[in-house]
Amino acid sequence: MKDPLNILVVEDCVDDYDLLVRKLEQDKITVKSQRVEEEDDLIESLESNSFDIVISDNTLPKIDAKRALKVVRSLDQNIPFIIVSGTIPEKAAIESMYKGANDFLLKDNLSKLTPTVLREVKEARIRTEKIQVENKLLQSEQSFQSLAQSITDVFYALDTNLRVVYWNDAAHREFNIKKEDALGTLLYDLFPTFKHSRIHKEFIKGIREQKARYTTFKYSKIVDGIEFIEYYEGSIYPSTSGSSVILKKVTEQKLAEASLNKTNKELETLIYRLSHDIQGPLSSIMGLIGLGKMECNQHNVLDLFERQEEAARELNKTIKALMTISELKKEKLTPQIITFKSAVDNVINRLKFQPGFNHIQTMIDVDPSHEIVTDRTLVETILQQLIENSIKYRRVEGSALTIEAIKLNKCIYLTIYDNGMGIPLEQQNKVFSMFYRANENSKGPGLGLYLVRSSIDRLKGTIRMKSELGKGCRFDIILPDLQEQHAEHQAKAMG
Question: Helix 251-295 crosses helix 299-330 at what angle (to 10 degrees)?
Answer without folding.
Answer: 150
